[in-house]
């Protein structure tokens, strides 16, 4: 027998399948559509093990569902704009476009080595004008709807990346992209009003089919608080009020979640940027409930962009207030709680969210140009639809400047345009859009990627949406996942999509760590290069190993284990040798039916690891048999096909089964046969019954002989004689001829 030559087999089948074998029609007769989505990658250059985990493992589900008669869309594309690609290009002194598209070309090749069943005909690259034309168009729809506004606010500035970041892109006060500590700057930026959707983003979470950890993280990020606003007048300001010159500075409004502690207030604390902060020391506020005068302070713990930026200090009930009071010699008042009646008299109910609007302008080159034009006379105008896309010009000097403007600002020929309204001289916006805008709708484009007239035709979208299954990284829970839910809701309100939520079911997959249990990184020297592994053990082994590493629907982290991968490789070699045993014998054992049942259920539950274990158990049982029924081996290959698509196809073809294993239907099991009944097996020596034992129905010949020989009575007989012949009648009889 030839030995298992993975590289020849994998090359051969990848060539045969070609790029177009998984072209997915929008309608397939008799087949239900299933949209299987995995977050598209950044074109960082090389596929790492994380990419394999993200794309090769869901491919198991894609193939399984197809064999179960579903019309499965499993698309792929590239999230090509943005900081990571641009930074990597800058580090190498390369043009971001050349770098990015070069990476895409090599990643396409690497993806092919995975044997993943992507529909390449639907590929989407966000940096292509044919794609970002529609990013701009959709952005302008939100603009028309009043969901985009320009405002000077405190923003997060990354001094290394020289750009503004959204709150979601700041983790522990550091830039999510480069790890540099962010600074607060007051800058005018384009914002998207995601806060208008805070309540709906929150309430619609309840009905979503996704892990509780995602819901909790989004709930916390949105951070709803119900409380009240209470006005404290400033002593002496009442005079101005009666004179009719009252302004906002005659009172301090606080936001509190505990209006019932009003009698315990012993000070007011203002955020450092509160309009009254400078005069705070000289102010005295009046508690509206008892007319007591309380001092006003400025305190760092009061956040300026939450609530009203002012807090009523209740040291008896609030930890931070107590700390502040003790430090500043402020009395602590232990008083009764205010009655509901008092609370209602002096406060106005108020709901507050931690969520901020989404700052979407970036002072960087490599992104979608914001399609707006500023005219001195008419103000901001949208670029007319007929002039879209506003193409990103090819320029030489794309290094971020750090002066608060994108490098595009220097391209005067591009910047200077005619005002679309009055025809006078005007200027383009030179900032580009946050990458998370690009990725907020890419899954819509997959449904109709070549459309030149619309971002996607309604009919095409309704064939596929909402996404049936979406897998991605936990790091996107409060970024991409929240943004795209918002984006979809906004499009729904504008009437551009039919569903309120984009994804019917979402999971966060886990992480693959280095062999040392640490995050894989060059600095730890623990990076596994998938190309190298594929060369050595084959794509089928790598795929199957990653599927075997743990359940896919839990966000665990799994260290790469050399022993584990060797074990999978040995398993596939044993499978290879099983073909020798194909022959004529009884088919359809209880174990076979149990395995079909288990593998089907486990794949559906994303427990690929235990599905593989079940296949291993079945293959062991095959090894113990003299022959494997042809039909049984065919069933085994069909179950193997989603996991090890190349090997399964080769064995299927070499042993003359019909067509392609990937076009064969998923095997069915008979429930009754899965029930392991026990049978009594009689043991005869020279035609006389000498014992019996009970065993599971379908027990193998080898096991049965071993069991029989172990019976004390039989052992005694056999020790005195030489065995001449043995017979086995399945589930009934073990017989020895001895003399
Ligand atoms: C009096 C009080 C008494 C409060 C008490 C709490 C407990 P969450 O749940 O986060 O909404 N607060 C209000 N605005 C603030 C700001 N800009 N920066 C820092 N703290 C602020 O918490 C709301 C509570 O946090 C408010 O209720 C206020 O303190 C404080 F026993 O008012 B409380
Ligand atoms: Zn104008």
Alpha-beta content class: alpha/beta
Q: Would you report the number of β strands?
A: 33
What's the assembly state of these chains? single chain
C-alpha Rg (nearest Å): 34 Å
What hetero molecules are in the model? ligand ANZ, zinc ion
Strand content bin: 15-25%
pLDDT < 50 stretches:
238-246
- DSSP helical segment count: 25
Q: Approximately how much helix is present in the residues? A: 25-40%
End-to-end separation? 39 Å
Shape: globular
Q: Averaged pLDDT, please?
A: 93
Main sheet specs: 7 strands, mixed
What labels describe this entry?
739 residues, alpha/beta, Isoleucyl-tRNA Synthetase, domain 2, Isoleucyl-tRNA Synthetase, Domain 1, 7-stranded mixed beta sheet, 4-stranded parallel beta sheet, 33 strands, binds ligand ANZ, binds zinc ion
Quick structural gist:
This protein has 739 residues and is α/β, with parallel strands linked by helices.
What does this protein look like?
There is one protein chain. The chain is an alpha/beta fold. Among the domains are: 134-196 and 364-436, no CATH class; 224-353, Alpha-Beta Complex (Isoleucyl-tRNA Synthetase, domain 2); 562-674, Orthogonal Bundle (Isoleucyl-tRNA Synthetase, Domain 1), CATH 1.10.730.10; 678-738, Ubiquitin-like (UB roll) (Roll), CATH 3.10.20. It is 35% helix and 22% strand. It has 25 helices and 33 strands. The strands form 10 sheets. Strands 10, 11, 12, 13, 14, 15 and 16 form a 7-stranded mixed β-sheet that branches. A 4-stranded parallel β-sheet has the order 2-1-24-25, covered by helices on one side. Strands 6-5-9-17 form a 4-stranded antiparallel β-sheet. The chain is globular and about 120 Å long. The structure holds ligand ANZ and zinc ion.
